[in-house]
Amino acid sequence: MLKKFIHVKLLLKITQEYVNSHFTFAFSLLFSLLFLAYSYNYTTHSWRPIVLLFFAIYALTTLYIGWLNLRIKRDLTKFSEIQAGTRRFGYPLLLTLLSGNIFATSFAFVILSNKKTAEYTFAVYAFITQIFIFGIGAFNLFKPYVTNLFLLAMGIFLILACFYAVMIVLCAKYVTTTYAPKWMFIPSIILLLATVTGNLFATLLGYSLLQKARQVNPSAIEKWQTIWHKILRNTMAVFGLFFIIFMFSLSVTSNWTFEYDFAIENNYSALLQAPSLEYPLGTDNFGRDLFSRIVFGAQISLIVGFFSTIIPALVGGTLGALSGYYGKTTDNLIMRSLDILYAIPGILLAIAIIAAFGANTVNLIIALSVGAIPTYARTMRASVMQLANFEFVESARALGASDTAIIFKHIVPNSLAPMIVKATLTIGGAVISTSSLSFLGLGIEPHIPEWGNILKVGSTYLETHSYVAIFPGLCIMLLVLSFNFFGDGLRDALDPKSN
Amino acid sequence: MVTIKNNVNATEHVFFYRTFQKLMHNRYYKALLFLLSILVHPFSYFFYKKTKNSNHYQQNFEQRCLTYKEQGLYDKWLKAFMAQEQAKASFFHDNVQNSQLQETATALADAKLTRLVEQDLAKEGLEHLNYWQFFNQQLKNTKFIAVTFLPALFFYVALLVLANPFLQFIVERLLQSLIVIIGVATLVFTILYISPFDPARNILGVEATPEQITNFNRLHGLDQSYLTQLWHTLTSLFTFDLGTSFAGKEDITQSIANKFPVTLEIAILSLLMAVAIAIPVGIISAVRPNSYVDYLFMFLALIGLSIPSFWQGLLFILTFALKLQWFPATYNPSNWLSLIMPIVVLGTSITASVARMTRSSMLEVIHEDYIITAKAKGLNEFTIISRHAIRNAMIPIITVIGLLFGGMLGGSAVTEKVFNISGIGSYIVDKQFIPDIPAILGGVVYVAITISIVNLVIDILYAFFDPRIRSKMRKS
């Protein structure tokens, strides 16, 4: 009896569907409560009907998931596996995509398929991302005019979404963890081409399928699968990755569907409008559409975040590798000089650099990069020092490889994992620093729509029009949170020792 | 080149000898000690040369060589080496001349002879000495110390200090911090020096005449060379006299001294808040890993890490100051209530980091063998955690707190701007628009110095409190 009890308990713990249902339940509940709290206007003592409707939908979803959770538990206790009948109850949950409940939708996809390959998950998220991109773009229909490319772009988005939906079914049917049929070659090429829309899930799916369909290097496939299996097991990391890719795709495609003029041209007939269908998040003090500004702001944040991570990673990584490999005087010289950089807080160093060279995007990237070099150098140095004593390095040296070749062909590729993890975790910090400096008036030029700039405007209208400050901040927080979640997942998957 | 090893006697003084011998292996210390005892060296070198010329050693050496040759041992070795070389040549099918083989064999035999003779002589207390070894030997001599004590006072003081591994560590660490601080000042100065902006134009306006600009530059020393300006800046930084700011003619040191305590007060209170909240949270999370409480705490911690502090500040002002009217929206030194929001905002991200760090550090410690031992002894969970786990888990956390404190001082600029606090951060931000070089420089460098001092103190405290570091130091 006790043995069975422990068995069931363990089974519940390792069944992804069960854990996921708990998680989805908690989040849906949280969101319904938030909607409930917001549905009542305390100053005018009236209800907000639209918010109340959302509350009802979310509350219903929550109840449904709670019931499904109990059913999964019963199945696992009775039959030790989830019955096909229970899985079928996932179909109605797919409708939650329309209410924007991404947690419930992804849970629906999790429960619908009993074999979870990385490809299936990629296809699911490629589909969800495309639908979201389409939905966000559709808000432009309420504008006085749209871009020339609008219809074409939206059409492509719709076709791609349908294609991804087909891919979900195909992946669930034909793809296993080690094998994909030969004809998958054709869709994988189309998927790789879809990268131009910024939907990196499609890229990942295409690459994965291509590898499996060609069946050239089984060990590479295995390695790729194991890493992604570990990352995708971590639900929060997946949502993090989803939001990052969604933001990336949005900033890639925003020029096609969003009119830049609404974000930068002053419109004195619509100053500080409250949220409406034409202006989904209202307008600012120059009558510029906040929604468009925030969408375009994602571009800047991602660009600055990316470059101010990649530059110090390259510079610091090289310095750290040289320092760790040569040791002694080289090491002392490099690391002691970097100690000087390390002693100045990043923001202050950035302020000093901007004070000296002026505030613009390029200077901002440089300023943020310089301060981040020492941390990367330290990370790289530590792993290079560890690796330099391994036998494969010795054998490379015995074969007459030059120091440069040993460092950059043998040691560095093997010590990239901690660097990648570190980089992912610091992009978030760079995004915060960017907007902080813009907020202080030291970052991006004020006319460019950037989240910190929008917030700066919002801070002056805090008392009367608080939404101008709230929405961009929310975006910053979500983006940084996503990078942190994804970075944590990546660390657990690639570099478990460092935690 | 010779000295006869004295038999150890009671009056011999080995303290300085041992310390010097140990330190001589490090060339930086060697150079430092040489500089400190520079007055003694001409004389001791003279004596060294004198003893070198006495060919006591050479005589002994030759005599010993002769003995070996007379005993016929040398010829025996020569034959053996010859046979060895021939065998080698025939094995590799090398066509080597006989004379060549003879040569190699002789060289090998000679080397063996020299080695043996040197060993024998060393046994009798005769050995080669270079100058440093000679000098080191002298330090055993009480008379030598007495004579040289005054001229090389600093040398002996250095030896006294460096003899103790703790003191040595502290001195090294202090020196390192000093170098870093000078480096920081130089770096920030250089960045501001190569700036393409012209402060004179910015302050005097576009209509300023060339004379006015020259006058301004001369007044603030901006027309001097890089090195002169750098030297002037460094001395003024360390003598706390930065002169007046470009705009407004205020005394910079005075302004910084007025603003620094405000920033420091808020930072320290934030740190206290962070420690008070984060450590219990981290411990609870680690004790019940993967529970709902753990998930909730870690989720909140991640949100705390991800929230931009200026946005959090604005939300707080909106909610607690404008809507609920619990706290005043801006900082006011006479009202302690106005401190609460800045403290919470500044402390949020550090609280989150410390909580995450505490959790992972505790998780690591909890799986150590000594915790299992404690469990096996039958201790209850509370005792295990409070007596055995926390103390060991705290070590990495304290380092992290030290590093985060630095980031917090730097990040205070944003929080100060949001709450309108006139601290050092907002001072630097205000001055950078001009750019008021001495003010920015002073602000940044003094913040960096504070951070260096905090980290220095933490490192030194470690050396005293962590038994592992202590024992490692003793061994080395």
Automatic annotation (TrEMBL), chain A:
<dbReference type="InterPro" id="IPR025966">
    <property type="entry name" value="OppC_N"/>
</dbReference>
<feature type="transmembrane region" description="Helical">
    <location>
        <begin position="231"/>
        <end position="252"/>
    </location>
</feature>
<dbReference type="Pfam" id="PF12911">
    <property type="entry name" value="OppC_N"/>
</dbReference>
<keyword id="KW-0472">Membrane</keyword>
<feature type="transmembrane region" description="Helical">
    <location>
        <begin position="21"/>
        <end position="40"/>
    </location>
</feature>
<feature type="transmembrane region" description="Helical">
    <location>
        <begin position="464"/>
        <end position="487"/>
    </location>
</feature>
<keyword id="KW-0813">Transport</keyword>
<feature type="transmembrane region" description="Helical">
    <location>
        <begin position="300"/>
        <end position="326"/>
    </location>
</feature>
<protein>
    <submittedName>
        <fullName>ABC transporter permease</fullName>
    </submittedName>
</protein>
<keyword id="KW-1133">Transmembrane helix</keyword>
<feature type="transmembrane region" description="Helical">
    <location>
        <begin position="46"/>
        <end position="68"/>
    </location>
</feature>
<feature type="transmembrane region" description="Helical">
    <location>
        <begin position="338"/>
        <end position="355"/>
    </location>
</feature>
<keyword id="KW-1003">Cell membrane</keyword>
<feature type="transmembrane region" description="Helical">
    <location>
        <begin position="149"/>
        <end position="172"/>
    </location>
</feature>
<feature type="transmembrane region" description="Helical">
    <location>
        <begin position="122"/>
        <end position="142"/>
    </location>
</feature>
<dbReference type="InterPro" id="IPR050366">
    <property type="entry name" value="BP-dependent_transpt_permease"/>
</dbReference>
<keyword id="KW-0812">Transmembrane</keyword>
<comment type="similarity">
    <text>Belongs to the binding-protein-dependent transport system permease family.</text>
</comment>
<feature type="domain" description="ABC transmembrane type-1">
    <location>
        <begin position="298"/>
        <end position="487"/>
    </location>
</feature>
<feature type="transmembrane region" description="Helical">
    <location>
        <begin position="89"/>
        <end position="110"/>
    </location>
</feature>
<feature type="transmembrane region" description="Helical">
    <location>
        <begin position="184"/>
        <end position="210"/>
    </location>
</feature>
<dbReference type="Pfam" id="PF00528">
    <property type="entry name" value="BPD_transp_1"/>
</dbReference>
Automatic annotation (TrEMBL), chain B:
<comment type="similarity">
    <text>Belongs to the binding-protein-dependent transport system permease family.</text>
</comment>
<protein>
    <submittedName>
        <fullName>ABC transporter permease</fullName>
    </submittedName>
</protein>
<feature type="transmembrane region" description="Helical">
    <location>
        <begin position="336"/>
        <end position="355"/>
    </location>
</feature>
<dbReference type="Pfam" id="PF00528">
    <property type="entry name" value="BPD_transp_1"/>
</dbReference>
<feature type="transmembrane region" description="Helical">
    <location>
        <begin position="28"/>
        <end position="48"/>
    </location>
</feature>
<feature type="transmembrane region" description="Helical">
    <location>
        <begin position="174"/>
        <end position="194"/>
    </location>
</feature>
<keyword id="KW-0813">Transport</keyword>
<feature type="transmembrane region" description="Helical">
    <location>
        <begin position="266"/>
        <end position="287"/>
    </location>
</feature>
<feature type="transmembrane region" description="Helical">
    <location>
        <begin position="144"/>
        <end position="162"/>
    </location>
</feature>
<dbReference type="InterPro" id="IPR035906">
    <property type="entry name" value="MetI-like_sf"/>
</dbReference>
<dbReference type="InterPro" id="IPR000515">
    <property type="entry name" value="MetI-like"/>
</dbReference>
<feature type="transmembrane region" description="Helical">
    <location>
        <begin position="393"/>
        <end position="414"/>
    </location>
</feature>
<dbReference type="Pfam" id="PF19300">
    <property type="entry name" value="BPD_transp_1_N"/>
</dbReference>
<keyword id="KW-0812">Transmembrane</keyword>
<feature type="transmembrane region" description="Helical">
    <location>
        <begin position="439"/>
        <end position="465"/>
    </location>
</feature>
<keyword id="KW-0472">Membrane</keyword>
<dbReference type="InterPro" id="IPR045621">
    <property type="entry name" value="BPD_transp_1_N"/>
</dbReference>
<feature type="domain" description="ABC transmembrane type-1">
    <location>
        <begin position="260"/>
        <end position="462"/>
    </location>
</feature>
<feature type="transmembrane region" description="Helical">
    <location>
        <begin position="299"/>
        <end position="324"/>
    </location>
</feature>
<keyword id="KW-1003">Cell membrane</keyword>
<keyword id="KW-1133">Transmembrane helix</keyword>
